[in-house]
Amino acid sequence: MDISASSSFHQAHKVSLLRRRQPSSLINSVSVIEFSLPLITSPSLAKCRRKRSSFGFVRACVAVEEKTRTAIIRIGTRGSPLALAQAYETRAKLQARHPELTEDGAIHIEIIKTTGDKILSQPLADIGGKGLFTKEIDEALINGHIDIAVHSMKDVPTYLPEKTILPCNLVREDVRDAFICLTAASLAELPAGSVVGTASLRRKSQILHKYPSLAVEENFRGNVQTRLSKLQGGKVHATLLALAGLKRLSMTENVASVLSLDEMLPAVAQGAIGIACRTDDDKMGNYLASLNHEETRLAVACERAFLETLDGSCRTPIAGYAAKDEEGNCYFRGLVASPDGTRVLETSRKGPYVFEDMVKMGKDAGQELLSRAGPGFFGN
Question: What sequence ranges are listed for the domain Porphobilinogen deaminase C-terminal (predicted)?
């Protein structure tokens, strides 16, 4: 399916909420730590136990395969289908560049359940913010239980734990947000009083700013499949999801339309995968250097400098996006908003696509918006 900002809505009630199909070749070696895997089909995983909901989503599947050899690289990741898809992408890129990693068991995927995965009944801000999706994985990295950690960059705090570095970003996916609804093709078509489900204050504030007649259900959490199931069950009228995640899960058939950057500026580092290793692990550092996409790394650095300057957290509606323009320069757009969407402040910068200049642009844009916002703007 070709997704564009002008994607048309074909017919009401014909948006299919389908699970992603996993190729049988995805798993070489997998361990599960207090978490259930999505559906994985492989002859060597015969002991896998599966439970399905009426919507076809795999609810639980525990699969453990004995390692036939000592792994050269142990990848740490969360256990959601999207996190696993990102780990598989990382593994595939490593194997494509390093023949020794194509042998069975050379790369082992270690699934680590984080606090953010365990507590789904409360908004992220109430249980400590986005770092809860990375803390346990970072600890496993520092303690030597894994060799590299694969993260969604928008979940990574602006500070990194001691003894770790994040030297690698894979090629960035589409940064835009997707609108998903069974009865309307866009936010503008939703009737007054319609409820949009999103746990993101960034999305909430921009929705309410442009469409004050709509309502937002804030505690709309869970992985992609869980949120689609809630939508299908009628708990909300519509939801927004990162298009990048839907593409990685091969689930773009669920998309009614794609929001333009003018309608919904993305989260800082949305669509980017980051891979961390220990500071003193030169071997892993060299492996990751071979995967790094420098254009993405610089864009993410610019955006994260903006976020860090604003001291952003899950209680703060912040959006930011840096990209290379037609002239080869960096064009950055940043936004802060009040949680209720009544005030939205925006700014932009343009300059050389060079690390030092881009970090400076991000910081400068953040300082400008801090000054314009004034005390108490974020309601903290």
Answer: 298-370
Q: How far is CA 74 from CA 29, 35, 167, in A?
A: 9, 17, 17
- Tokens of residue 254, six digits: 């669920």
Q: What is the DSSP letter of 77?
A: E
Which residues, including other chains, have CB under 8 Å from residue 2's CB and lie 6 or more apart? none
Residue reference for tokens 């970003």: 169
Structure confidence by residue, pLDDT tens digits, 29-83 = 555 544 333 333 333 333 333 333 333 333 333 333 334 458 999 999 999 999 9
174 included as an active-site residue: no
Pairing of strands 58-62, 49-52: antiparallel
SS3 189: helix
Q: Which of 315, 340, 107, 92 is nearest to 214 (CA)?
A: 340
| Distance of alpha carbon 304 from alpha carbon 141, whole angstroms | 22
Contact between residue 20 and residue 251 where contact means Cβ atoms under 8 Å apart: yes
Residue type, 273: I
Q: What is the pTM of this model?
A: 0.81
**Which member of 117, 138, 155, 177 is catalytic?**
155
Q: How far, in Å, CA of 109 to CA of 121, rounded?
A: 28
Q: Indicate the residue type of 50.
A: R
Q: DSSP per residue over 107-157, as a string?
A: EEEEEE--HHHH--SS-HHHHT-GGGGTHHHHHHHHTTS-SEEEEEGGGS-
Q: What is the C-alpha separation between 211 and 369, in angstroms, rounded?
A: 23
